[in-house]
Design brief:
The complex is a heterodimer of chains A (334) and B (267).
Chain A (H helix, E strand, L loop, with lengths): L1 E14 L4 H9 L2 E15 L4 E5 L6 H8 L7 E6 L9 H4 L2 E5 L11 H11 L4 H14 L15 H13 L5 E5 L7 H18 L2 E5 L3 H7 L2 E6 L2 E7 H8 L3 E7 L13 E6 L2 E6 L4 H11 L2 E8 L2 H23 L1
Parallel strand pairs in A: 3-7, 3-8, 5-6, 6-7
Antiparallel strand pairs in A: 1-2, 1-4, 8-9, 10-12, 10-13, 11-12
Helix pairs in contact in A: 4-6
Chain B lengths: L2 H21 L1 H10 L2 H12 L10 H18 L3 H11 L2 H5 L5 H11 L1 H19 L10 H25 L8 H14 L11 H9 L2 H4 L1 H7 L5 H30 L8
Helix pairs in contact in B: 1-7, 3-4, 4-8, 4-13, 5-9, 9-13, 9-14
The chains are: A alpha/beta (334), B mainly alpha (267).
Chain lengths: 334, 267
Amino acid sequence: MISVRGLRKHYKVHKRPPGLKAAFRSLFHRDYTTVKAVDGISFEIHPGERVGFLGPNGAGKTTTLKVLSGLLHPSEGEVTVDGHVPRHREAAFLKKIMLVMGQKQQLLWDLPPAETFELNRAIYDVPPEQYKQTLDELVTLLELEELIQKPTRQLSLGERMKCELAAALIHRPKVLFLDEPTIGLDVSMQATMRTFIKSYNERHGATLILTSHYMDDVAALCPRVIVIDKGLLSYDGGLEALVQRVRPEKRVVFRLDQPVEAERLTPLGRVVSHEPTTAVLQVPPEAVSATISRALANLPVTDLTVENAPLEEVMSELFSENKARRAAAAEVGA
Amino acid sequence: MSLRTAARAFPTLVRIGFSEALAYRAELLIWVLSTTMPFIMMALWTAVARDAPVGRYGQEGFVGYFLATFVVRQLTGAWAAWQINFEVRQGTLAMRLLRPISPIWSYAAENLGAVPMRFLVGVPVAIISVLVVGPDAVPRQWWGWPLLALALLGGWLITFLANVAIGTMALYMESSQKLMDVWLVLFFVFSGYMYPVELLPPVMRSLVDWLPFRYQIGLGAEVMTNAHSLPTALKLLAGQWLWVLGMGALAVGLWRRGLRRFAAYGG
């Protein structure tokens, strides 16, 4: 469905120090630097897959999505989406895809969302029956009944984002690029969006690429993740496998009947947190059963759970590893 | 991009543009107030013509001409340059580029959507003009009406396409706002907006015929006020539509090349 081979996107950026003198100087002489937003990445995505596209700020995630959706011309490399070359921006291609950006909107600001839906129906040439069916479905699933007749400017951020998603799906795209779709939303609205996106993927077999800084989005939606950092691919595979590779240790959360001293916990494993009646220990996977047995024998345990390390920590560790590797490589080069 | 898709979607685009114009009615009123320059010019030139006509324009002639200029300006206005410049700089052009219809069609529909509201402003002025000036305020011959319609359409197209070409320059330079300011200065001098172009010295007049500005406003006002015979009007209309084609080619060419440079900033 999506094939990316050796994709590079480099920008020439004008650099100017602050101050009046530098401003005058830049009138006659400008210094440019090349920013390697994406620097030779390759991957394949199959129809119906849900893939998380992760990386720190400035990693090149959004640039890649913009190239995939035809907004940016790649500097180098080959990209195809369902057999189309995105930069050609053929109508047939644009009718198959949609890019939803949490920080940009397509809704008409002073008109109700219903007008944007109608506009998209006309632009995407959606047959009337399919339009009615899709709209009914979106209104029901996203609970839009009360919202679509109010001017967009009067909607809350969460309400607007739901309508934004509905507007993006009026033409039932086969490929959905979601760039931070839950940014700024409260926890319950994030959950609503996740449930809806997953059900859209399952019902229509749509291929989905998601970027998000909220790891809950990724954990809930994406069995596979692609991690890029400084424009380079640093991981492509299962989310579970990534966690096992970067942070194989398990976390055992104990709920206690009464407070215990810290000294009683330390022999069991690394104490991640300790509150009066809750303790979180980090232990190697092979030591989990032994630790639990010893804890049950020595502590007033009322309940326990075994978890992976939080995804945020896993990602942060991965990015630190990458940074350290780059620094080492630079040192060797010097 | 499919032209058939664009043609099919265009009526909806214009209807939405009209709804937006209704939503921005206060802004529209302010825009109308900002286009009252012809009334000021009318006061000035009628004072000049109090003792003797200027060229073939007496006091009544100037009243008819400037009221026609006001009406033509209402019906041929476009603001796509500011929209495009803003959307390129903010990166919001991206949302339009994701749709399977050229953004140029969307800008055209949004600009055309405001015409009915402007028509409501222009028609009473035309009626007042007929009451004050007499039948010479509007075409006397039957052929004058279709020629006026053509001149208005041509004038709108030149204005809109020039806006697209200038707005698109934001893809090449950091901002195209100043370029639009330069265009507007030339427009005020050469379009017939501040005085009928036939009052210009002969050298300037022949220059005006080769520039696009007269075809934006002056020609429409002249056809409306019966300034030309049929052959002259047809000749001028041919010149106007050549400019439509030229400006169209320039706008589309700049747009296509410029999109390769679009950086889709933000988000």
